[in-house]
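Hi everyone, sorry if this is the wrong subforum. Our group has a chain we'd like a structural model of before ordering constructs, and none of us has done structure prediction before. Sequence below.
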Amino acid sequence: MPVPKLSGSRLAAAAKILPQLPIDADVTREVMATLIEAATPDRHSTDRLEGERGENVRATERLARSHTSAVLRRAAEGLRAISDAEWSELVEEAARDGRE
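Answer:
Right subforum, don't worry. Here is the predicted structure as tokens:
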């Protein structure tokens, strides 16, 4: 179940209410951390990661993006090289496989 992205006022309300509930303080802290994370607009940005770990993640992200682009380029070139007759044959074969 996704965590709701609360507005600032609702986040503040949650911060007031959670400590009053009969739950462990550690649980309260974790729930608030989760709510704050969900409300953070750039939460998926790797720029938020600091230090060597952040650099490693960004380098891996660049490498994966580059590799994916190269694979997609090769796939597009291969598809453009297929004749119309060969393409029709592949489509018919896929349709037959789908019915089996």
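For your construct planning: The mean pLDDT is 92. Helices lie at 8-17, 25-39, 51-81, 84-99.
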